[in-house]
Write a structure and sequence with these properties.
The chain is built from six helices and three strands, in the order αβαβαααβα. By secondary structure, the protein is mainly alpha-helical. It holds the Pfam family OmpH.
C-alpha cells in the first residue's frame, strides 16, 4: 500500500509571506535614500523595507508547532487505520489462496468477487483519507497564512515598514539580505504573545 501522506515538515512560509506591502503615510514625505552604503543605512533607519526569515519563524512560532503536531497525529492515526485494513485484506487473500484448491468453482467465484469488492473499497478508503488529509492541511496552512499576514499588516503599520519580505536559505528570490533589516525575532515574539492570549 502507498504511504498516504506527504511530509508535513515541508510546509513553507515562503508561499505565504511573499511580500506584504503596507503603505505608511508618516513616511510618505521623507526624502529618497542616497545610493550605495548610505541607502542601506537609510533604509534600515527609516524602516522602509525589512524581512523575516521564514525558516526561523516556523521553527519558533508556537502555533505552527501545534498545527504540525496536530496534522502529524492525524496522519499517524489514519496511516495506522489504513495499515490495519490492508493487513486484514491480505490475510483474507492468503486464506483464500490456501483453500482455493478445495473449494468448488462457485465458491471460488463468489470469494473472488467478494475480495475484489473489498480491494476496491480499500482503494476508495485510501483515496478519501488522502483527500481528507490534503483538505485539512490546506485549511491549516490558510489559517497560518492569515495569522502571520494579519499580524504583519498591523506590525508593519505600527513600525512604519512599507515592505516585509520573506527570506529563506536557498530561496532563489532573494540572493542577499542585510541582517540589519531582519525583524524575525520581533515578529515571532509578537505572534507567540498573541497566540498565548488566544489559547487562554
Amino acid at each position: 500500500m502507498n504511504k498516504p501522506f506527504a511530509s508535513i515538515a515541508k510546509i513553507s512560509l515562503g508561499l505565504m509571506l511573499a511580500v506584504a506591502a503596507v503603505s505608511c503615510n508618516n513616511n510618505a514625505n521623507k526624502p529618497a535614500a542616497k545610493s550605495g552604503k548610505d541607502s542601506t543605512a537609510a533604509a534600515a533607519t527609516e524602516g522602509q523595507i525589512v524581512y523575516v526569515n521564514s525558516d526561523s519563524l516556523l521553527a519558533n512560532y508556537e502555533y505552527f508547532k501545534d498545527m504540525q503536531a496536530k496534522l502529524q497525529e492525524k496522519a499517524k492515526k489514519t496511516q495506522s487505520e489504513l495499515q490495519a485494513k490492508g493487513n486484514a485484506f491480505q490475510r483474507e487473500v492468503a486464506e483464500y489462496q490456501k483453500n482455493a484448491a478445495t473449494m468448488s468453482a462457485e465458491q471460488r467465484q463468489s470469494t473472488e468477487e467478494r475480495l475484489a469488492r473489498k480491494q476496491e473499497e480499500l482503494g476508495k478508503f485510501n483515496q478519501n483519507a488522502n483527500q481528507s488529509f490534503a483538505n485539512d492541511e490546506a485549511q491549516e496552512q490558510e489559517k497560518l497564512y492569515n495569522k502571520v499576514a494579519d499580524y504583519l499588516k498591523s506590525h508593519a503599520k505600527e513600525k512604519g515598514y512599507k515592505f516585509v519580505l520573506t527570506y529563506a536559505k536557498g530561496n532563489p528570490g532573494v540572493l542577499f539580505a542585510d541582517e540589519s533589516l531582519e525583524i524575525t525575532k520581533e515578529v515571532v515574539d509578537g505572534l507567540n504573545a498573541a497566540y498565548k492570549k488566544e489559547k487562554k
